[in-house]
């Protein structure tokens, strides 16, 4: 038969393990793990999530693709904010940099 000390030791070990799992889950969420981008199968979908970047514990930056257009959105628990819309979608990052609007050069 188990005595009171054994039950207490078991309960404390259980609480420790659950707390450790909770801390690891918070760290994983903080550093962006768990935000997997859906895979593109053989059927090309019209709407997809291209990338997700956590900003803080409550908000994340989401790049949505619809047909050949991308939209940058900040999603929070009670709000959505469109940062930029109508970005031409491309799979070639170098080509996207060439077509990007460059800031005007300062005049002397």
Q: What is the domain total for the residues? A: 2
Task: Specify the structural class.
Answer: alpha+beta
Helix content: 25-40%
Task: Provide the succession of SSEs.
Answer: HEEEEH
- Low-confidence stretches are none
**What is the average of the pLDDT values?**
80
Strand tally: 4
User: What is the rounded distance between the termini?
Assistant: 89 Å
Number of helices: 2
Q: What profile does the largest beta sheet have?
A: 4 strands, antiparallel
Beta-strand content bin: 25-35%
Structural shape: elongated
Gyration radius from CA atoms, angstroms: 23 Å
Strand order of the largest sheet: 1-2-3-4
Would you kindly provide a written description of the structure presented here, covering whatever features stand out?
- With 108 residues, the protein is α+β, with helices and mostly antiparallel strands.
- It folds into two domains: 1-34; 45-101.
- It contains two helices and four strands; from the N terminus they run H-E-E-E-E-H.
- It has helices at 4-30, 93-99, and strands spanning 47-54, 60-66, 69-75, 80-88.
- It has a four-stranded antiparallel β-sheet, with no helix packed on it.
- Strand 2 (60-66) and strand 3 (69-75) form a beta hairpin.
- The chain is elongated.
- The mean pLDDT is 80.
Fold topology:
Elements: H1 4-30, E1 47-54, E2 60-66, E3 69-75, E4 80-88, H2 93-99
Antiparallel strand pairs: 1-2, 2-3, 3-4
């Amino acid at each position: 038969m188990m005595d009171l000390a054994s039950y207490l030791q078991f309960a404390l070990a259980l609480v420790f393990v659950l707390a450790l799992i909770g801390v690891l889950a918070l760290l994983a969420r903080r550093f962006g793990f768990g935000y997997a981008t859906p895979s593109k199968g053989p059927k090309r979908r019209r709407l997809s999530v291209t990338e997700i970047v956590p900003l803080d514990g409550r908000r994340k930056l989401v790049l949505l693709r619809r047909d050949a257009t991308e939209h940058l959105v900040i999603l929070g628990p009670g709000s959505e904010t469109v940062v930029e819309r109508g970005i031409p979608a491309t799979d070639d990052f170098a080509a996207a940099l060439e077509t990007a609007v460059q800031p005007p050069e300062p005049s002397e």
